[in-house]
Specification:
- With 249 residues, the protein is an alpha/beta fold.
- Helices cover 41% and strands 14% of the residues.
- β4 and β5 form a beta hairpin.
- α3 packs antiparallel against α4 and α5 runs antiparallel to α6.
């Protein structure tokens, strides 16, 4: 138990998942701006600011959060200033960790924008908020699964399309990638002649046709690899079918 109970010092924790379920949550910078106002208003002593862009729907997936917890256990701080408790946890394991540390007095206070959680009077409320955050993830997952199954039943692949196709952001349907579709079709044409190996086709596509993979925010713009070409030639999507959740559509 932290022996410095008379004085509360805080770690600030701000988190923003890059996944769909948290698109509406304020950005990390917006969270920090709000928390700075709270710290000034309440005259809180801030030891360190922790930020990360990771989902909290599963435990042990947030290295920054885990580091903060370990440093609190070492007594470097005994309070957490956070935008909302669902920034700390969205799964029962992390909820249990924070709740136990609060009950034991290792954490003396969790301060959000509009509420305080203390060792003696807020355990039930913290459990309720934690359960709501976890239930949100469960409901979202179930709704997403149902939505993808419905899309598949209508003949649409409910995931990213293979090379030669893209997802139309407006209609959420799969359409032809006008820059690469004709090249993919020519690769199939060469394969079906029986005169070219996949390795030869790959060389022709890259060196003679100038094929480059579709560029995204993080990757792309590279030559086609032989392994990727094998994947294309084994993908039944190009026959007008696809497999989803163990079923062929």
């Amino acid at each position: 138990m932290n022996t410095n109970e008379g004085k509360i010092t805080y770690f600030v924790y701000a988190r923003k998942s890059q996944e769909n379920e948290e698109r509406q949550v304020q950005s990390i910078q917006d969270q920090l701006a709000d928390l700075k106002k709270v710290a000034i208003k309440l005259n809180l002593e801030i030891k360190k600011v922790f930020t990360e862009a990771k989902s909290a729907k599963a435990p042990f997936m947030r290295p920054v959060f885990d580091e903060m917890v370990k440093r609190i256990q070492k007594g470097e701080a005994n309070g957490i200033l956070v935008w909302h408790t669902n920034r700390l946890f969205r799964n029962p394991v992390d909820l249990g960790t924070i709740q136990w540390m609060l009950q034991q007095g290792v954490i003396q206070r969790i301060q959000t924008l509009d509420r305080q959680f203390n060792p003696t009077d807020s355990v039930i409320l913290l459990s309720i908020e934690g359960s709501m955050a976890n239930q949100y993830i469960i409901d979202l997952r179930n709704a997403c699964t149902r939505g993808m199954a419905s899309k598949a039943s209508k003949g649409w692949l409910p995931s990213l399309p293979p090379a030669g196709y893209i997802t139309d952001r407006n209609t959420k349907t799969i359409v032809i990638d006008t820059k690469r579709f004709h090249l993919i079709r020519k690769m199939w044409g060469l394969l079906l002649t029986g005169a070219y190996s996949p390795s030869q086709i790959c060389t022709i596509a890259n060196k003679e046709w100038g094929y480059r993979t579709r560029r995204t925010n993080r990757q792309g713009g590279n030559e086609l690899s032989v392994s990727m070409l094998y994947h294309i030639f084994h993908n039944i999507f190009y026959t007008g079918m696809f497999e989803w959740a163990g079923k062929r559509y």
